[in-house]
Amino acid sequence: MEGTSAKAIVIPATGDRLGVTPRNGDMSWKDFLSRAAGRSSMYSPVYQSADALINILFSSGTTGEPKAIPWTQLCPIRCGADTWAHLDVRPKDIGCWPTNLGWVMGPIQLFSCFLNGATLALYHGSPLGRGFCKFVQDARVSVLGSVPSLVKSWKAGNLTKGLDWTKIRVLATTGEASDIDDNLWLSSRTCYKPIVECCGGTELASSYIQGSLLQPQAFGAFSGASMSTGFVILDEQGNPYPDNLPCSGEVGLFPLYFGATNRLLNADHDKVYFDGMPIYRGRQLRRHGDIIQRTVGDYYIVQGRADDTMNLGGIKTSSVEIERVCNGADEGLLETAAVSIKPSGGGPEQLAILAVLKDRSTSYDANILKSKFQRSIQRNLNPLFRVSYVKVVPEFPRTASNKLLRRVLRDQLKQELANRSKL
Questions:
Q1: Which of the chain's termini has less CB crowding within 10 Å, N or C?
Q2: Other residues' Cβ atoms within 10 Å of the Cβ of residue 6
């Protein structure tokens, strides 16, 4: 209550009564609402051009320096349209998505709820505990968003036991590659409601690839391009694969994209998103940096960032592919992270796997884990891949939006192995 002369609206921590005495000029939340009750709800609009700025967001920084991205008047329209079309957000829905306004999902959630006539459910505290899961029940949330690492924590702690999540009619997830078993568990909490996968970026103000309630869904997979967008999958020479052909490669986005940014405040926009990208049907494709796979059944799986691709014995693979296999190698594992290390003296890349245990107070022999990872990878992925290094850690470094920072793990391992070689 001290340190500023600005008028404050004081919100009770719990219930309706304030636990403090407001300063002269301050107002309680209850008084604020009562004063506003008699006023007209009609306001004169302020007209602005479509490219007028509304806010500035920073990218998560998973692959490098965060980019300062200005949003325009078009971005909220894109947010609301995407969730209306793909998540079926409608009036009388109650939406909840653990996030913050520093991550793109914060503004997306605000615009998605309010432009579609839904109610926004806000929880004060960490979404990792049972308190949040109970809030979802008590607030009667009907559209629940999450990130895969959150679902993994809810499942590991069995935090929804005894709770009723049947008011949820649509689930959504973004931020990381989903685990199929975790998605099955999450859906089962809601009487098997659909989970819509979303993948996009701050610079797009939306997702370029999503699930759709109008198409069959598969856990951990996407149905196709978001409404009004398009993309191709590129081979190693930058040539687009034919449509409907099962394949894997870097995605190239169609450049005409409603709501996408056309400038950055701390970097060269064209250099970041367009330089070096191929021409497709007379237009230069937009870079996004994801590696995606198109399956035999025309589903899509995001395999991680191009920056997280590794070359093991002359075969390219992604961190996400290896992690999916390793996560099921031992029941005591909470999650794994796979990175490749280039030896200081040269030679082929070496595979390193870091692991977080469900019970972090127990010790575990890294050599036993190494053997289990090796068997699982050889049996389920590729018999030629060799695990060179395994380390158990208490937790992984993450961005504010809970994305795994593999580049930080890679740098830490390089330094650790370099120090060992000096001894």
A1: C
A2: 7
Which domains are delineated in the chain?
Answer: 53-304 (3.40.50.12780), 313-421 (3.30.300.30)
Q: Is the dihedral of CA 218, 220, 225, 226 positive or negative?
A: positive
Residue ranges in the chain whose pLDDT is less than 70:
1-4, 40-41, 60-64, 314, 344-346, 400-401, 421-423
* End-to-end alpha carbon distance in the chain: 55
CA distance linking residue 292 with residue 303, whole number of Å: 5
Q: For the chain, how many residues are written?
A: 423
From residue 44, give the alpha-carbon distance in Å to each of 40, 41, 47, 116, 126: 11, 10, 9, 20, 38
In the numeric block, the tokens 């520093």 are attached to 102
pTM of the model: 0.77
Q: What is the DSSP letter of 220?
A: T
- The phi, psi pair for 312, rounded to 5°, reads -110, 105
| Measured torsion, CA atoms of residues 137, 141, 145, 148, in degrees rounded to the nearest 10 | 10
Distance CA 310, CA 204 (A): 27
Any idea which residue has 């997702």 for tokens? 207
Task: For tokens 């579609």, name the residue.
Answer: 116
226 touches 79 (CB < 8 A): no
